[in-house]
Amino acid sequence: MSAKRAIVTGSSSGIGKSIAQALLADRWHVIGFDIAPTSIEDDRFTPARVDLCDRSAAEAAAASIGPVAALVHAAGVLRVAPLGKLRASDGELMWRLHVESIASISNVVLPAMAAARDGRVVLIGSRVAEGKAGRSQYAATKAALIALARSWAAEVIAAGVTVNVVSPAATETAMLDDPARKSESPVLPPLGRLIRPDEIASLVVFLLSPPAGAITGQDIQICGGASLPH
Question: Which SS3 state, helix, strand or coil, does residue 157 take?
């Protein structure tokens, strides 16, 4: 049965792990797609070792687990560089992980949701999708997620399936310690602190719930005031 079964990508750490744990607490069965090992121990958690940068592997993994009621794409990586120092390999990595992987998975999962006339999809985006100096490649991939979500939402809403994006500002995760971004410190929002992964997870759990059935095609920001005029 697909009821209360969810795929969460990037479930081994950071935002994805927090979302998986929140869903488990809400009595979901979670299938975690990640290439890294997980520390989650729960009878309702099923780890699936998947190289999400491999389109064929991602699609095959989605096809192998059967129908699900929800899909959350939280896998991510950040590479920063200004013009003149952009590396094609960085852009390719982020595009494959952020965009191509979820396109491959959704190509299997969303038609099945539409056929069942029920389903929820949430993609984890970023406020950087609006553009930021030094993050052009990352921003492009996150902007693509919004375009995908709105397009898919338009295709499946009549079948009762919703697709949304949750875009946080700088979040307190291990990604902040990645040596690839040591040259740039995160900017605190007006709230005065980083966004917490559990705050993102709480919103995702709501968007997967029946009361959120009329919310679709939206980019919902958790910004701590960063998007407000100053």
Answer: helix
Directed axis angle between helix 14-25 and helix 197-207, to 10°?
50
Active-site positions read: 138
Can you give the pTM of this predicted structure?
Answer: 0.93
Q: Which of 75, 78, 96, 103 is nearest to 10 (CA)?
A: 75
CA atoms within 13 Å, Cβ hemisphere of 162: 19
All residue ranges of the chain with pLDDT < 50 are 1
DSSP 52-104: TT-HHHHHHHHHHS---SEEEE---------TTS--HHHHHHHHIIIIIHHHH
Q: Which backbone phi and psi does 119 adopt, to 5 degrees? A: 165, 160
Which whole-number Å values give the CA distances from 212 to 22, 75, 97, 153, 155, in the listed order?
17, 23, 27, 14, 18
